[in-house]
Amino acid sequence: MSTFLNDFKLFFNMIFELMGTFYNWLISTVVGEIILFTILIAIFIGIIYAIINMKN
After folding, report:
1. Nearest CA-CA partner of 36 in 23, 51, 17, 49
2. Sign of CA dihedral 9, 12, 18, 22
3. Does residue 15 sit in helix, strand or coil?
4. Which helix (H) or strand (E) segment is 5 a member of?
5. Which residue has the higher pLDDT, 39 or 55?
6. pLDDT for res 20
7. How confident is the model at residue 23, as a pLDDT?
8. Residue 15: what pLDDT?
9. Can you give the pTM of this predicted structure?
């Protein structure tokens, strides 16, 4: 059981490290900043659309 938990911990550490590396790339390059900005705009428009849809 302890080897399973160690493997599970290693797996999640790798995933979080990859996410951190990807996030650092996104915020440090122009292309990454454009991608982040586009995603934020899409989320904002989606939230506004959902709010408008709830009123109908």
Report:
1. 23
2. negative
3. helix
4. helix 2-28
5. 39
6. 93
7. 86
8. 94
9. 0.60
